Amino acid sequence: MLAMCAVVCAQEFEPVPMNLDPMLLDDDVAEEVQEAPRPEDEPDDYVEEVEKPQALDVPRDQTRVAVLGYHNFSQKAKVTQMLMRTSDFREQMEYIRRAGLTVISMQEFLEWRFGTRTLPARCVLITLDDGWKSVYTEAFPILKEYGYPFTLFLYTKYLHGRGDSLTPEQVREMQAHGATVGSHSVSHLYPSSWKKAQKQGPEAYAALVDAELGESQKKLSELFGQVNTYCYPGGYHTPAMLERMPGYGYVAAFTVIPAKVTVNEDPLQIHRYMIFGNNHSIFRQAMDFRVSQLGQASGSGAGPGTLDQTTPPPPFPVEPRPHETVAPDFPAITAYMNDVAGLNPDTVQMKVSGFGRVPATVDKATRTVQWVLPCRIYMPDLSVHVSWKSVEGTRHKAEWSFSINPNAPIQTENTIP
Ligand SMILES: [Zn+2]
Known about the structure:
This protein folds into two domains: 51-287, Alpha-Beta Barrel (TIM Barrel), CATH 3.20.20; 318-404, Immunoglobulin-like, CATH 2.60.40.1220. 23% of the residues lie in helices and 23% in strands. It has helices at 30-35, 86-98, 106-114, 133-146, 168-175, 191-199, 202-224, 239-244, 281-287, and strands at residues 57-58, 64-70, 72-74, 83-85, 102-104, 119-120, 122-130, 150-154, 179-183, 229-231, 252-254, 273-274, 318-319, 325-326, 332-336, 343-352, 356-358, 361-363, 368-372, 381-390, 395-404. The strands form six sheets. Strands 2, 5, 7, 8, 9 and 12 form a six-stranded parallel β-sheet that branches. A five-stranded mixed β-sheet has the order 14-21-20-16-17, with no helix packed on it. Helix 6 crosses helix 7 (202-224). Zinc ion binds next to strand 7.
């Protein structure tokens, strides 16, 4: 276990009610909570030590930055991954303030990563993707109120003020109040478009990279002044993109793989927590600075959510399979428990790292236990814990883990940018 608690003074700290997600509201049976291993990031875990505001700087290698990625906001429309309730956004900003975290600007981030600037131990970099009008109408007033700097990753085809897009004037107004502009390409292509171009050969591919990454930098610089950061749409990036990035004037580029950023971070593949509107578990992870390497994709040791390779596989078929690697849009976690002797189907529970206990359904005829994922998952690993009682009342459990490749082809090309 990596968890190392520093001073915990939760009494002084009234956490904002962030357990809005019904999946995270624990329901019953204290007994199960006792016996099941607790994933690192269950709800109450994220209420952590509090520092006074004005945290002091530390040596550069001791700083950890949680980069947060947001999209669209509304107080009324149905929340989705990409659309957050405005009041939830306010709660999150308030959480950051109360927890004594330091919100830094992109400039401060770059000076820390590339220069000699020091920062406090626990920092947050706020980014907002795509250029939704609601960034101006909903999020900006809150960010201004808190005095938090932020970065807008804009794609140039969606910057005309029509529909739900921002106008350049709105962007300029935000620039005057702490916003940095970064590029999010010209047309926000899906991976399938990139793959099509790849099939046409390296020249065609390079031309598309130039058009999307290079031209957007030029256009945005003309409109808003220096642009030197990029955010890969959907997190999709390839070696050819990385190679050409410096030629366009980008010094840093952001992914959608969640982990704390250290001073040694690869500047062209910077980790970022995508904060969903319909699931607050990723925000909780982002706010947990006790496990500094949380979700670190470097593969240095088993991170939380990864079971030891020696954990025996479950004694029944499961999907995804143990140690399998799947795409971020894998549909469900399923355990086929038909052959489990003496199973009492009413007692089956499923816990998933990062989500806690999940509302898995149990088909009593086929004894198929299934949790349909509420969103795409960009954590590098997930571990699953299934427990059940036999008809005599003995409790049993099975565990397995699998990996997620954030660059794997997405099958469900729907509304998610
Ligand atoms: Zn996007």
